[in-house]
Amino acid sequence: MAVLFLCSVSTEGVQAQTAEVNVGGSVARPYKINPSAMSAMKKVEVTVKDHDGKDHHYSGVSLYEVLTKAEAVPGNLLKGKTMAKYVLITAADNYQVVVAIPEFDPAFTDQVIVLADKEDGEALAANLGPYRLVVPGDKKPARSVMRVTSIEVLDARNLKR
Fold first, then answer.
1. How far apart are CA 116 and CA 128, in angstroms?
2. What letters, b where the CB count within 10 A reaches 16 and e where it falls short, cover 121-136?
3. What is the pTM (predicted TM-score) of this model?
4. Using one digit for the tens of pLDDT, what is the confidence trace for 29-45?
5. Which domains does the chain have, with CATH numbers?
């Protein structure tokens, strides 16, 4: 019985390590974020007050870099029609939040929204990760999506009125 339990824990760890985030929607180059893709991207770090009321240090990659790699905004020029684009982030439990592209584009703000894979120097706990969206400027961490599974770029101009 103890061997069975150990195997179960080991399998769960492997699943967490191989999890992927689909990056797609209205982008030129959809792709998947996995540990290999994360390691190839520039790392960023932020400190935010979390649900527990304490400051936590998160590290990962900027949402801007994630969407730049996917070519979400042609020529990285956010103006005109591209101003109607937004990002829908979905969690494993189907919790969803929206972030407008200007909220993380360096041409509009100094805020860095992070797709984190580490908290306080350690891999995210299973109930938080393997990937978590961290929005440092928010007073409430409601857009801090845990267990991110997809990042989709959508266009508000396509919504039915």
1. 10
2. eeebeeebbbbbbbbe
3. 0.84
4. 999 999 999 999 999 99
5. 19-156 (3.90.420.10)
